[in-house]
Design a protein that fits this description.
glycosyltransferase, 11 strands, UDP_glucos_trans, quercetin 3-O-glucosyltransferase activity, quercetin 7-O-glucosyltransferase activity
């Protein structure tokens, strides 16, 4: 295990996967570490930075013109440096519509760009040398980079420990025919260490995607080399699963990562236009609003959208429904039934 060098302030290089659900936890982790005295160098891809900048320009009449998304945090005294890196694709390349080629690029080419960046940062930071790499667990290269530059390898998993255990034991799922089998299995999965019996139908559907499987398989081979694994989960909620993982690795539950005052943060991290629903929410009873979202990556067909729209209308519940402009995989604007917004305007 690599050791953190003896210096006044440890210096962590934080690299999230270039997806919204991975960037947000990495930002909150960086803020927490910086508040404990760490120097942070936070790495976004050039594309992600451009998306955040565009979203900020659309959402605010007074955008932050500083290159760093952490400029306000730095004004409060935190030492967070911000750099961007090329991900191997042009800025105008549609990463959502071409998700498989993009993932293949993350698997096969991205590490070269990371190596170049880390080498430069290690060379340039001779006063505050980088002491540890905090990289998203879904990357396939952290152990190689950390070993090359003799820095501590910290793997950051942004999901529950149960999901980690399933990905970690892909070999068992394959041996038992719950992965890679054309058969539609109905039996339970009851052999994963630290995980209680679950239904085969509850396994992540992306297990069936060959490129995603390749990424997960390689990433969870690499994570076995990590010096420390930290996860955005709570020890008391997943004690059995966490204890099982800790038998093999230095695994720590450090969640919830999100700060209690996250709504007051001045850091712009959204890749899409943000709409403030606060005033509308304040008119509704506590706990009465249903939140509906398919996340930042999933593509949904129009039939499903229409079915959900009718279901929400018939339910008569208050709701906030996040509809991405490219949720159907194309720039189709009018995806709701005619007159729908008028029909539910008081509730949704």
């Amino acid at each position: 295990m690599a050791e953190i060098r003896d210096q006044k302030h440890p210096h962590a290089l934080v690299i999230p996967c270039p997806f919204q659900g991975h960037i947000n936890p990495a930002i909150h982790l960086s803020l927490k570490l910086a508040s404990k005295g760490f120097i942070i160098t936070f790495v976004n891809t050039q594309f992600i930075h451009s998306q955040i900048t565009k979203a900020q320009l659309t959402s605010s009449s007074k955008p932050n013109n500083d290159h760093s998304i952490f400029s306000k945090a730095c004004e409060s005294g935190l030492d967070i440096r911000y750099v961007t890196i090329f991900d191997g694709f042009p800025l105008d390349f549609d990463r959502n519509m071409n998700s498989l080629p993009f993932l293949e690029g993350l698997i096969n080419q991205f590490s070269g760009h990371v190596d170049e960046l880390v080498g430069k940062l290690v060379k340039d930071n001779y006063v505050d040398p980088i002491t540890c790499l905090v990289a998203d667990t879904f990357f396939v290269w952290p152990s190689i980079i950390a070993k090359k530059y003799e820095i501590v390898n910290v793997s950051f998993f942004t999901e529950p420990a149960l999901v980690f255990a399933l990905y970690y034991h892909l070999d068992l799922l394959e041996e038992n025919g719950h992965f890679g089998s054309e058969e539609n299995r109905k039996d339970s999965v009851d052999y994963i260490p630290g995980v209680k019996s679950i239904e085969a139908s509850d396994l992540p559907s992306l297990f069936q995607n060959s490129v995603v499987h390749q990424l997960i398989y390689k990433a969870f081979q690499d994570v076995r080399q990590a010096d420390i694994i930290i996860a955005n989960t709570v020890q008391e909620l997943e004690l059995e699963t966490i204890t099982s993982i800790q038998e093999k690795h230095n695994f720590y539950a450090i969640g919830p990562i999100v700060s209690a005052n996250f709504t007051e943060l001045t850091i712009s991290s959204s890749l899409w236009f943000e709409f403030d629903c606060t005033q509308w929410l304040d008119t509704k009873p506590c706990g009465s609003v249903l939140y509906v979202s398919f996340g930042s990556v999933a593509l949904v067909n129009k039939e499903d959208i229409l079915e959900l729209a009718h279901g929400l209308m018939l339910s008569e519940v208050n709701f906030i429904w996040i509809l991405r402009f490219n949720g159907l995989g194309q720039d189709e604007k009018d995806i709701l039934p005619l007159g729908y917004e008028e029909a539910v305007k008081d509730r949704g």
